[in-house]
Amino acid sequence: MSVFEHIDGDGYEQVVFCSDDQSGLRAIVAIHSTALGPALGGTRFYPYPTEEEALVDVLRLARGMTYKAAAAGLDLGGGKAVIIGDPKRHKTEELLRAYGRYVETLGGRYITAEDVGTALGDMDVVRRESRWVTGCSHTWGGSGDPSPVTAYGVMQGIKACALEVFGNPNLSGLSVAIQGVGKVGHALCGYLVKEGAKVTVGDIDVDNLARAVSDHGVESVPLAELHKLEVDILAPCALGGLINDDTISELRCKVIAGAANNQLASDEHGDKLRDLGILYAPDFVINAGGLINVEDELRGYERERAMARVEGIYRQLQNIFALSRERDLSTARAAMEYAEDRIRKVSRIRLVRTSEFGPTSAH
Ligand code: NAD
């Protein structure tokens, strides 16, 4: 399939292929939309078996960022980048700086950050060649690892779900099963235990599992059992696709609310959850804390302000639940509609400011 066949129809603005022979850099930057502001999204460093798989992934992720930023009420568009290669073997200073040069050439239409396969320190290196980087380490005046902030936002979202389903946002005594206790899941576990929730965890990584159990005194169960537990809340915090044709009939929870991206295998699974009476917190709404945090860095980071803004996820989910009732839609579809509506309305206003538009003026 040609590149144009991939991007036609979904409104992508720009796809940039970057190559630097000497460092071995092969990257793709996808800008889905700058309708609300510069396209912000992380750089994924991953050994894609084929270029086509890399392209499909970067396009899907960039589009997702448009929705996430719009639903979070940010003046940001959606973009993403992938670097093709094994981060353990191919990541070098030379390659990251070569990549930074390409990011710089986009003049702020795309702002990068860390993602799977890249870390804070890598963003510090990219930043030596480009101003358009966020999520840098504290050493360089950045906001540091966004994961604990994402977890804080997820907890706010879980409280909104508790209010919706149990009539009270208090988490004390509620049972929560967390799938995946990596950076976000581990921090979420801590927050929930502190709130008095009864937490059970599962992970494929035995070290991460052991750390969660010993740090937070929670129980663990075999992974195959986790999503079948009769709990109040299931929190997917590993990879996407937990809610699929095989698992959906096995769910015994009342709420699904977690950090993982792309939790639903398809939009239809969101409809099915609604039919089953399970409240789903749309992933790109509840997990926006990290994005809000790195956006705050562009304004001159203030942690207290960032955390206060992340608390807005609670209210935002309430809005989505209300919209879902009003339009008789799944919460997932309601969140998409909300984002599209905001892009339509606000981008019209922002167009007037095109001449002064861009991160240098906006932030
Ligand atoms: P991470 O890699 O630190 O943690 C993921 C954890 O999931 C690891 O412990 C891993 O062993 C485990 N895992 C992987 N596959 C699993 C499986 N099949 N079953 C059970 N456990 C499995 O990643 P993270 O930064 O904690 O992110 C978790 C999820 O949240 C991802 O989907 C990520 O895209 C999403 N997310 C993260 C952030 C952030 O700020 N880090 C922001 C938004 C969304």
Describe this structure in words.
This protein is globular. By secondary structure, the chain is of the alpha/beta class. 47% of the residues lie in helices and 14% in strands. The C terminus is likely disordered. The protein contains 16 helices and twelve strands. The strands form two sheets. Strands 1, 2, 3, 4, 5 and 6 form a six-stranded mixed sheet that branches. The protein has two domains: 126 residues, 3-Layer(aba) Sandwich (Rossmann fold), CATH 3.40.50; 188 residues, NAD(P)-binding Rossmann-like Domain (Rossmann fold, 3-Layer(aba) Sandwich), CATH 3.40.50. Strand 4, helix 2 and strand 5 form a beta-alpha-beta unit. The protein starts with a helix and ends with a helix. Helix 2 packs across helix 15. Bound molecules: nicotinamide-adenine-dinucleotide. The site of nicotinamide-adenine-dinucleotide (NAD) has 24 residues, from helix 6 and helix 7. Nicotinamide-adenine-dinucleotide binds next to helix 6 and helix 7.
Portion of residues in helices?
40-55%
Number of DSSP helical runs: 16
**Residue windows where pLDDT falls under 50 for at least 5 positions:** 353-363
The level 1 CATH classification of the largest domain is Alpha Beta
What structural class do the secondary elements suggest? alpha/beta
Tell how many strands the DSSP assignment holds.
12
Q: Which ligands appear in the coordinates?
A: nicotinamide-adenine-dinucleotide
**Could you give a short account of the major beta sheet?**
6 strands, mixed
Q: How big a fraction of the residues is strand?
A: 5-15%
Helix-strand string: HEEEEHEHHEHHEHEHEHEEHEHHHHHH
Shape descriptor reads globular
Q: Look at the structure and give the mean pLDDT.
A: 94
Radius of gyration: 20 Å
CATH architecture of the largest domain: 3-Layer(aba) Sandwich
Report the span from N to C terminus. 39 Å
CATH 4th-level superfamily of the largest domain: NAD(P)-binding Rossmann-like Domain
CATH topology of the largest domain: Rossmann fold
Number of domains: 2
